[in-house]
Specification:
Elements: H1 10-21, H2 32-45, H3 51-65, H4 78-93, H5 101-109, H6 125-128, H7 131-135
Helix pairs in contact: 1-2, 2-4, 2-5, 3-4
């Protein structure tokens, strides 16, 4: 599987994380890869932030700043956010040594989680795209989320 995203320096990840955090990252740069980069940056570099608690508001505010409406059908999605944080933490914990953030992202991109449709291995589209899953955590309906 060829990785769609690739980062060449930790500075790229830090830039994405900081610009997401201060809501100056251009909307066009808020890609699948950037979501992972921001998650790893928050987990690894911002001990003052609790991603599981704080990421929902960070994403909602970022969406508002870039003109994305947070509604029942667009914008912030609780199940996707929390699932991604579970995977990011598990992936980080499974790494040997202390890989740089770009190395960590590139390793994830080379895994099944690097594919933008990875969630459909765990959730049906019907369940994942429900209003309930957008507003609150909904457990996978296909198989348990595990690394």
């Amino acid at each position: 599987m060829a990785a769609l995203y690739h980062y060449s320096s930790e500075a790229e990840i830090i830039r994405i994380g900081e610009r997401f955090f201060d809501r100056t990252l251009p909307k066009a740069e808020w890609t699948h890869g950037a979501h992972w980069a921001a998650a790893f940056w928050l987990i690894a570099k911002r001990p003052d932030i609790d991603p599981e608690r704080d990421m929902p508001d960070l994403i909602r505010r970022y969406n508002e700043a870039t003109g994305t409406v947070n509604s029942d059908s667009s914008g912030y999605h609780e199940t996707i956010t929390q699932a991604s944080l579970i995977v990011a933490r598990g992936f980080l914990a499974a790494q040997e040594g202390e890989p740089s953030l770009d190395e960590l992202c590139n390793r994830l991109f080379a895994s099944p989680f690097g594919e933008s449709d990875w969630l459909f291995d765990y959730w049906s589209k019907e369940v994942l795209f429900s209003v309930k899953a957008r507003k609150e955590w909904v457990a996978p309906d296909i198989k348990p989320l595990a690394l």
